[in-house]
Amino acid sequence: MAEPHAVTADPRPGRLAPYVDVLRSRVRAQRSYRTSFAFDLLGSLLVGLTELGEVWVVFHNVPVLGGLDFHGILLVFGLSNLAFSLADMLFGHLDRVPTYVRTGTLEAFYLRPQPVLAQLMVSDLQLRRLSRAAVALAALVAGLTLNDIAWSPLTALLLVLSVLSGTAIFGGLFVSAGALQFRLVNGAEVTNSFTYGGSYASAQPAAIYPTALKVTFGYLVPVVFVAYLPALLLLGQPGPSLLPAWLGWCTPVAALWVWGTALLLWRDGTRHYQSGGG
Amino acid sequence: MRALTGGVAGGPVGELRTLGLLVRAGFRRETTYTAAMFAGLFTNVVFGFIRSAILLAAVAAAGGTLAGYDAGSVGAYVWLSQGLIGAVTLTGTAEIAERVRTGDVAVDFVRPVDVQLAHLATDLGRAAYTTIPRGLPSVAVGALTVGLVMPAQVLPYVLGALSVVLAVTLSFLVRFAVNLVGFWVVETRGITTLFTVAYGFLSGLYVPVHLFPGWLGVVATATPFPSILQSPIDVLSGRVLDGDAVRVLLVQVGWVAAAALLGQVLLRAGRRKLEVQGG
Q1: Which of A147, A251, B31, B108 is the most buried (most CB within 10 A)?
Q2: How close is the nearest chain A Cα to the Cα of B114, in Å?
Q3: Which residues cross the membrane (chain A) (predicted)?
């Protein structure tokens, strides 16, 4: 430490370098146990396939549900599951906060100079979620091919915007869930109702919801923006009461709303946290 | 050694007493996690609202009846399954998995009570407690909001209670057997994930098994999973009555026997394997 200048004289690594290093190590770690990783990929693939299977069983019994047929619901399912599995890969492990709190490993994150949230994000990237994202992407491509969609640059923009905002919406929900767990610890399961529950709710034709659910999942925990509203625009449908189709262009607004809340909750959670003095 | 087992268990009566104590212990352990119970209840109810919206819309779209369900009976299906899910827990992992992994199961083997029975007793206690603060309120919320139609006679409830006990037992026995794979495989997460996925889909948790297309229905009934969730709901809600209900219970008994046997076989083989490792 006598000669700090000697250190700084070296080409300094960029601000992102520590994150990239951690991410690289995560990828290496998961690839080194090949059989285990293959099983994980297969498990995640089956999760995606059975979720699609559930939708298919319902539409096998009724041709149209909430104004959408099976081809229409493929768009909703694809957009919803693609956004959720990407968000789950990036943020899903935040639900381990109670474990970190209980075992006292959270201190290590506080001691490093990077923001705790950013460190936690890269700490446990789960590559196995990619196979579930692949199922979702396949469903989305099938939906885009099978439906009669009026293609234009705007349609492409809408798709890109929807996937990015949808991933951000679920990501923000995972951050909110992680933040609340600083206070809940033992009651952590309650946050599943808007992360996993939100994912489930976002993959349905929201026209079937009673008013209370339309308000809850349309505006409070705005997961209807992830897939249903953009799908209405793609299909040229007007949308049900309370959820007009033009809202499909407002997915970034919904993402901002979720992230605003999430960051406030996160600040509250990390400030509330008191180490056990481990 | 014989004197010790005689002293602790004291024959079949003593063993029953030990098992009774384990049931109570499983029950009391859960009572310490009140916050977790309410969190679970809340999440149950949210999922219940989404699921009833989907299935009520499906019944309406089908013109009022769908695979024998109407608005009232599909409500009963949704909320009874939400009520049961805590008791017949879906997660593939069980305490035994951790004990196999760490080798603590060796201690279980020298105890005077059968390993499978002891873990079953604790799990029955857990399930019994789960039903009170999580199961019954879930059904009550469904009854008050969405509405559900339940049978007016007594018999369906008696047979239904039996069916629920069989389902909880079967749920445990199947999870127990799957987790014993840990004797031979170090990383069991892949297997438990496959199991949980099959369990969720084929037990009728998301969509009633009665809505499955023919071939998928055949696949489902070839597994024990419908006996864990769909069967107790069918009996409790009065979808199957009298002789048919008894037949459903007998199928459950058959699966319980098969799963218990599989568990015992795996346990014996695993015990030999464990001794080879010299843990």
Answers
A1: A251
A2: 32
A3: 37-59, 71-92, 130-150, 156-175, 217-234, 246-266
Yes or no: say if A83 and A226 are a contact pair by the CB < 8 Å rule.
Answer: yes
Write down the pLDDT at residue A8.
46
Q: Where are the alpha helices (DSSP H) in chain A?
A: 4-9, 17-32, 34-61, 70-91, 97-103, 106-111, 116-123, 130-146, 153-184, 192-202, 211-215, 228-235, 251-272
Q: Where are the domains of chain A?
A: 34-272
Beta bridge partners of B69: B66
| Contact list, B206 vs chain A (CB under 8 Å) | 54
Chain B nearest-CA distance from A260, in A, is 24
Specify the residue for token string 């799908």.
Answer: A231
Chain B CB within 8 Å of residue A53 CB: yes
Tokens of B52: 């009833």
| Pick from A208, A202, A10: nearest CA to A87 | A202
Say if residues B38 and A187 touch (Cβ distance below 8 Å): yes
ipTM (interface pTM): 0.88
Report long-range pairs for B196-201 (Cβ below 8 Å, ≥24 apart): B196/B90, B196/B91, B196/B92, B197/A43, B197/A46, B197/A47, B197/A50, B198/B223, B198/B225, B199/B90, B199/B92, B199/B174, B199/B225, B199/B228, B200/A50, B200/B90, B201/A50, B201/A53, B201/A54
Inform me whether the C-beta atom of residue A210 falls under 8 Å from chain B C-beta atoms. Answer: yes
For residue B240, the surrounding DSSP H or E stretch is none
Structure token pair of residue A15: 């601000």
Mean pLDDT per 10-residue interval, chain A, length 278 residues: 45 75 80 78 89 94 95 97 94 81 78 82 80 94 94 94 97 92 80 93 96 96 97 95 95 97 92 68
Confirm if B112 and B8 have CB atoms less than 8 A apart.
Answer: yes
Cβ atoms of B232 and B147 closer than 8 Å: no
Inter-chain CB proximity B194 and A46 less than 8 Å: yes
Q: Does B278 touch chain A (CB under 8 A)?
A: no
Mutate to test the interface with B, among A61, A132, A221 (most CBs of B within 10 A): A61
Give the closest-approach CA distance of B9 to chain A in angstroms: 36
Q: Which two tokens stand for residue A41?
A: 């990929």
- A35 chain-B contacts, CB cut-off 8 A: 187
The answer to whether the CB atoms of B206 and A54 lie below 8 A apart is yes
B109 in reach of chain A (CB within 8 A): no
